[in-house]
Design goal:
Distance between the termini: 59 Å
Structural class: mainly alpha
Shape: elongated
Oligomer: single chain
CATH topology of the largest domain: Tetracycline Repressor, domain 2
Number of helices: 11
Number of domains: 2
CATH class of the largest domain: Mainly Alpha
Helix content: over 70%
Order of helices and strands: HHHHHHHHHHH
Strand content: under 5%
CATH superfamily of the largest domain: Tetracycline Repressor, domain 2
CATH architecture of the largest domain: Orthogonal Bundle
Length: 212
C-alpha cells in the first residue's frame, strides 16, 4: 500500500471511529456529518469523498460492528465452546460498544434500510452461533429443547430491555459490567433442563422411554 492509499485508509477509519463515538453519545438522528467532520478534524467535503451520503456512513458503522460481533462468535464456535462461553463473548463484545449498540436498538426503525439490514444480519449471526452452541447441550439434557427463534429472542429480549432502560437498573455507566453476569445466569436458569423428584432429567427420561 502506497502513502496515498495508507492516508486514505487511515482517514476512512478515523471517520468511522469518530462517527461511532458521536452516534453512541448523541444518537444517530442527532448527529450531522458536519459535526462528525469537525470532531474528526477534517473538512466536511472529505466525509463525502469516503461516504457519498450520511446513510452510507451510518450503514458502514453498523456493518463494521456486525463484522466484529461475527468474528468473535465464529472463533468460539470453531473451538466448540459452551453456550455460556458464547453468551459471555456476546456480552463482552456489546460491552465494548455498549452505548452504540443501545442506540441501534432504540433508533433501529429510524435508521436507513441498509443499516437495518446490517443489524438484522448481525442478530442472525448471533442467533446461529447461540443455537449451534446450545444444540449439544439440548441433546445431552443440560438445557431444554427450544426452537432457535425462541432461544435467541428470549436472550435478546432480556438483554435489550435492561440496556434500553439502564437508568432503572444501574447507577453506573455500563449495564453489561454491572448486570451482565447476573442476566446470563438468569437466562441459563430459565432454559435449564428441569429434573424430576428423583433428581433425574425429564428430557433424559423421555428419551429413555421413547416419548420424545
Amino acid at each position: 500500500m502506497n502513502d496515498r492509499s495508507a492516508r486514505k485508509a487511515a482517514t476512512r477509519v478515523a471517520i468511522l471511529d469518530t462517527a461511532a463515538s458521536l452516534f453512541a453519545d448523541r444518537g444517530f438522528i442527532a448527529v450531522t456529518t458536519a459535526g462528525i467532520a469537525e470532531a474528526a478534524g477534517i473538512s466536511h467535503g472529505l466525509i463525502f469523498a469516503h461516504f457519498p451520503t450520511r446513510d452510507d456512513l451510518i450503514a458502514a458503522v453498523t456493518a463494521r460492528f456486525g463484522l466484529l460481533m461475527g468474528s468473535r462468535l465464529h472463533d468460539l464456535a470453531e473451538a466448540q465452546e459452551s453456550l455460556r462461553a458464547v453468551l459471555q463473548a456476546h456480552l463482552r463484545t456489546i460491552g465494548e460498544h455498549e452505548l452504540l449498540y443501545t442506540r441501534f436498538i432504540a433508533e433501529l426503525g429510524l435508521l436507513p434500510a441498509a443499516a437495518q439490514e446490517h443489524f438484522v444480519a448481525m442478530q442472525s449471526v448471533v442467533s446461529h452461533h447461540l443455537f449451534r452452541a446450545a444444540a449439544g447441550e439440548m441433546q445431552s439434557g443440560i438445557i431444554m429443547p427450544i426452537e432457535n427463534d425462541l432461544l435467541f429472542n428470549t436472550w435478546a429480549g432480556l438483554l435489550h430491555y435492561y440496556l434500553t432502560n439502564r437508568r432503572l437498573f444501574t447507577t453506573g455507566s455500563s449495564v453489561i459490567a454491572s448486570l451482565g453476569e447476573r442476566l446470563l445466569t438468569h437466562f441459563l436458569s430459565l432454559i435449564a433442563q428441569k429434573e424430576d423428584h428423583h433428581g433425574r432429567s425429564v428430557h433424559r427420561l423421555r428419551n429413555a422411554y421413547g416419548k420424545g
